[in-house]
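Reopening this ticket.

The earlier resolution said the output was attached, but the attachment link was broken on my side. Pasting everything inline this time so it's all in one place.
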Amino acid sequence: MVAPAALRVVRCGGGTIHGARAVFSADSKYLLCASGDFVKMYSVVTEETLRLMGGHADLVTGIQLNPHNHMQLYSSSLDGSIKLWDFMDGIPIKTFTVGSKLLALYALASSEDLLFVVIPKSGERDTFQLVSVKLTKAAGQDVEAKELSVVLDGVGASPKHIAFGREGQYVASVKEANLQVYFFKQKQLNRFSVNAVKTKGGNSQFSCIACHPTEDCIATGHADGKIRLWRNFYHKKEYTFSTLHWHHDTVMDLAYSVEGTSLLSGGVESVLVLWHNESDRRKDFLPRLGSPIEYISMSSDGSLCCTLHKDNRITIINSNLRFSKSIQGLIKSKYNKICPPLWGQNVSLSILGNLSSDFYF
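Inline output:
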């Protein structure tokens, strides 16, 4: 008789697909998202998983198209590395080892050999910095990228707490009740606080941020459900803001349309709100999306957007705010039942595709 073999976990599947903002390919045919320590590529038309790109040793925290080659993708991870992918073939081109845990990733068309990442501040607990990483052009697939420059101190750890303004001229960051705006060319830092703003009760702390693509306007979401539109923030005292309000709880994410003529917002109500021309009177809704919205992403041609949800689901939406597709990842059961094994000791199990069912072992 053969002694029973020890149970060995070969691979844990069903990673969270709402941990970082998703990215559309330049032609809007594909959707790329972080899923655990993988990067997944889906077909927008068929919802099929086309690529599963592995190589990171820890959670993927950010993905960005290469602004100078739209067939390539950057990904960052808690393992301290940035990978450059040919996502159409699903192969890694280069790995840049930064060393620190990378909590968020940003890429600008105006910065050819630089990426921006959020890292923990050395020697300080729960304190984070936005730094630029110079990408070395050294030969080889695995290279070090240790040339870091601090851009902002005291930033939030979430990817939606930082946004870059018009053509990368400035970067804005929110944390708790504070807004920072740093102007690269002038090397000027302006700080603002909602504590100085008169509010009619509620928690006005910042929850997310987005910058207008063509104008000097910053949209911020707040814990009290309000959206503030900041202008004239080149001046520390003469700044102005207006307020939009529909959400009854925290605004979870914001995204401008490509032209900047409309603003999308989402939160715990599971409703996507489209604000026209930044007006409180002109807005449309896409309700009953199933669960709270974590992230909103726009395609570069403006034809599609997508929402990532708490229940590990992606909803793809047309520009006219009509539902198009839904991609469901694995979800944790709310029940604690455990079924007895239904197979022998030498049977291996493989689960393929994107399944919405619950599995118990």
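Reporter confirms the inline version is readable. The chain is about 0% helix and 45% strand. The domain at 160-298 is CATH 2.130.10.10 (Methylamine Dehydrogenase; Chain H).
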